[in-house]
Write a structure and sequence with these properties.
- By secondary structure, the chain is of the alpha+beta class.
- It folds into 2 domains: 2-87, no CATH class; 136-261, no CATH class.
- Helix content is 38%, strand content 15%.
- The protein is built from 7 helices and 7 strands, in the order ααααβββαααββββ.
- A 4-stranded antiparallel beta sheet has the order 1-2-3-7. Strands 4-5-6 form a 3-stranded antiparallel beta sheet.
- A hairpin with a 4-residue loop joins strand 4 (225-230) and strand 5.
- The longest helix is centred in the N-terminal third of the chain and has 36 residues, at 2-37.
- It is elongated.
- It starts with a helix and ends with a strand.
Length: 262
């Protein structure tokens, strides 16, 4: 019972802090509204009795300047981001959900290691760099409801042999450019759209390994998930249900994950 009471008190304290900060923001906005907007011309008819007193009315209002908008937004950003960071993982995810970018949080002290596994940019973050760049992944097509081959069995495709992280986009572009078959893994990845994002690619071998670690999956369904990394004219790398990479005939069927960089 004592532990339950303590938890409830902490939850109330967090809600109270949020309410307090919202009130501060409201007061600030009202203050800024009066400070920045009540510029104008005063009726020159004034009464003077003892101390100077002016009566009149505002006849012209001016909208806040761009600089004033920037100052207000910066204050609100600091307030909301600070509060979100205090809430831990859930707070960071909520900040990403309402439109803040990873770099906004990294610049305020959040470690890049806090981001993998969180939703952002149309998928799940699997790589986050200190400079704000990163990679997200998304489930796309499974083996059960699609007949997806790597494509162009027997054809060597120059520029599609990259295996390292960062080579997926080049591999995908090379495959699409050289292989005329339609419903192949790379082309489906390149045509994928999710949450308005259309710059997806088929991950390379090492990129899919990284995705598998973060998302904790082997093959999506069935027994293999394609990468964009070509082994030779007849084979390409795929991942099996045991998280292992294997050389697979390009004509075989498999599922795909897609990825995009930001």
């Amino acid at each position: 019972m004592k532990d339950s009471k303590c938890i409830k008190e902490k939850a109330f304290a967090r809600k109270f802090l949020l309410l307090k900060q919202l009130i501060i923001v409201t007061i600030l906005l009202v203050s800024l509204s009066f400070q920045f907007q009540l510029y104008g011309q005063v009726n020159p008819k004034a009464e003077v009795q003892g101390d100077l007193q002016v009566t009149g009315r505002v006849t012209q209002l001016e909208l806040p300047t761009q600089d004033q908008h920037v100052v207000t937004k910066a204050y609100m950003d600091d307030l909301l981001i600070g509060f979100g960071i205090q809430m831990g993982d859930d707070g960071i995810q909520n900040l990403l959900k309402i439109g803040y970018d990873p770099i906004d949080l990294i610049e305020r002290g959040v470690s890049p290691t806090s981001f993998p596994g969180k939703q952002y940019g149309g998928g799940t973050i699997v790589i986050q760099n200190q400079d704000g760049s990163g990679m997200v992944a998304q489930f796309a097509y499974s083996q059960n409801n699609n007949t997806i081959s790597w494509g162009c069995q027997g054809q060597n495709i120059p520029g599609a042999t990259g295996t390292a992280i960062g080579t997926g986009p080049q591999n995908t572009a090379a495959i699409i450019g050289a292989c005329n078959e339609m419903n192949i893994a790379a082309r489906l990845a390149g045509n994928f759209v999710n949450d308005g994002y259309n710059d997806w690619f088929l991950p390379s071998r090492d990129e899919l390994n990284r995705i598998a670690v973060v998302l904790q999956f082997g093959a999506i369904t069935g027994d293999k998930t394609w990468t964009s990394s070509q082994v030779d004219a007849f084979d390409a790398y795929s991942m099996n249900t045991g998280f292992m990479m294997e050389s697979t005939r390009k004509q075989a069927n498999g599922g795909i994950m897609v990825a995009r960089n930001y």
